[in-house]
Amino acid sequence: MIYKRSSALFAEAQKVIPGGVNSPVRAFKAVGGDPIFVKEAKGAYLYDEDGNRLIDYINSWGPMILGHAHPPVVNAVIEKARKGTSFGMPTEIETKIAELAVSMVPNIDKIRFVNSGTEACMSAVRLARGFTKKDKIIKFAGCYHGHSDSFLIQAGSGAVTFGSPNSPGVTEGTAKDTLLARYNDLENVESIIKSNKGEIACIIIEPVAGNMGCIPPVKGFLEGLRSLCDAHNILLIFDEVMTGFRLAKGGVQELLGVDADIVTFGKVIGGGLPVGAFAAREEIMNHLAPLGPVYQAGTLSGNPLAMAAGLAMLTELNDNAEIFNSIDKKTEYLHKGIQKVLEDKNIIHTINRIGSMISVHFSENPVVDFESAAEGNNEIFKKFFHGMLDQGVYIAPSAFETWFITEALTYEDLDETIKAVSITAKNL
Ligand code: KE4
Question: Are the CB atoms for 215 and 367 separated by under 8 Å?
Fold first, then answer.
C-alpha cells in the first residue's frame, strides 16, 4: 500500500496541530509510522488520501455501528442543517432522543446531553459527589473515562493505591481524591472502601473494559460492586461510552443484568457527531442545575445536528434489535477465523470477545486486567498492525484498544480479514 499523500498531509498538519492530530492515539505513536489520512468512508470501508480502500475495524472508535455515511443518519443531518445549525435554545428533537434513550436503557428516568464522553463522565462524577456529599472516587487501572483531571491518575506508591497524577497539569490535590483499584478484583475494591470509610462518592467503571483491549468482567465482579455500593452508600457509575447501544439496546445493564446508579454514554448515541450523555434515576438527576445545586452546562449541548444524527441512529437500533445479534455473530465468526489461523501458525495469543467488541493480545496468559494486558508482546502487535494495514485492514493502532464491529461488514469482508491475518501471521 502507498501512503505518500497521507505522509505529506501529516507533515503539513504537524506544523499547526500538536503532533499533527486532534487526539493522540491517531498519531500511530504506539505502532510507528505515519498516520493514515482518510478522504471519505462508506459502509465498512475507509478510502484514504492515497486511494487505498481499507476495511475499518475502528469505526471512529465505536460510533459507526451501522457503517460509515449511513443514509438515514446523513439525511437527518442534512435536513436539520437546512433549518439552522445551533440555537442555544431548547428544541423538540432533544426531548425526542431523550425519551427514546430513556425507553431503551434500564434504571434511567432522565438524561442530560453533553458534547463528549469525557464531559459525560466528568459531569457524572461531579453529580455523584454532589448527591452523596462525599469527595473520593474509585476508578480502575486501565479503564479510561476521558481526559478530565480526576481520571488522569496512575497507581500511586504504597498498598493503599492512592492515586498520583499521570499527566502534568493534574494536581496532587485532585489526585488524592481518586483511588485506583484493579479490574476484576473485588477484594481489592473492598479493601480500598474499608481504608476510606464514609469518604467514597462513587465507583466509576467500564462494565466491559475496552481501553485495555476488550476485557469482560469475570462472573460476579459487577454484582459484587453493586453489593458493595449498596452497603456503603456509594453510587455505581457505568461508563458505557463504548458499550452503550452496542452490546445491547440497554447496554451492559441489560446484557449482564447488573443495575448502575448513573450511566454515561458517547459514540453510538451521537451517530458519529459530538454527543455524550449521562443519565440516572430522577432523584439523582434532579440534583442538576437548573433544578438542583450541581452545576453543569454547555453551549452546544443538545446541538440539533448532533441530536438528529443520534436520533436516527438510536431509532434504527431500537426498531431493528436483531442488528445486535447479527453483529455478535459476525464478531464470533471473525474470532473463530483469526484464532484458527494464529493457532495453525503456532503464534502465542489470546483473544477476548464479548458481543461486537473483540481484541487480539499476543500473550499466552488470560487478559483480565491492566497488568495482564500489559504483558502482551508489543513488538509482535506492531508487526501485526502494519501487516494488516498492508493487506488493507485497519485495526486499532494500539494494543490497548478494542476492535469495533460494524453491521456494514459482510462475511466476505470477514473472510478477507481472516485471510489478511493468515498472510500477516507469516511474518510475526
Ligand atoms: P471522548 O471524550 O473521547 O468522547 O470519550 C472519552 C471516553 C470515555 N469512556 C470510554 C469508555 C471511552 O472509551 C472514551 C474514549 N475512547 C477512546 C478510545 N479508546 C477515544 C479515542 C481517542 O481518544 O481518540
Answer: yes
Q: What pTM value is reported for the model?
A: 0.97
What domains are defined for the chain? 4-65+323-425 (3.90.1150.10), 71-319 (3.40.640.10)
Per the listing, cell 476495511 goes with: 55
Confidence of residue 158 (pLDDT cuts 50, 70, 90): very low
Q: Report helix, strand or coil for 258.
A: coil
Residue to probe by mutation, ligand 1, list 59, 215, 242, 245, most atoms within 8 Å of CB: 242
Condensed to tens digits (0 to 9), the pLDDT of residues 122-149 reads 999 999 999 999 999 999 999 999 999 9
Indicate the pairing of strand 136-140 with strand 45-48: unpaired
Convert 265-302 to b/e letters by CB count within 10 Å (16 or more is b): bbbbbbbbbbbbbbbbeeebbebbeeeeebebebebbb
Q: H or E element: which one contains 204? A: strand 200-205
Q: Report, as an integer, the average pLDDT of 149-177.
A: 78
- Atom of ligand 1 lying closest to residue 61 CA: 18
Determine which residue's CA is closest to atom 18 belonging to ligand 1: 61
| Cα 178 to Cα 138: distance, rounded to the nearest angstrom | 6
Check if the beta carbon of residue 201 is closer than 8 Å to that of residue 234: yes
Distance CA 191, CA 189 (A): 5
For ligand 1, mutation pick of 22, 149, 211, 215 (most atoms within 8 Å of CB): 211
Q: What is the mean pLDDT of the chain?
A: 96
Say if CB 121 and CB 151 are below 8 A apart.
yes
Residue 234: CB atoms within 10 Å: 25
Atom 20 of ligand 1, nearest CA residue: 61
pLDDT score at 161: 54
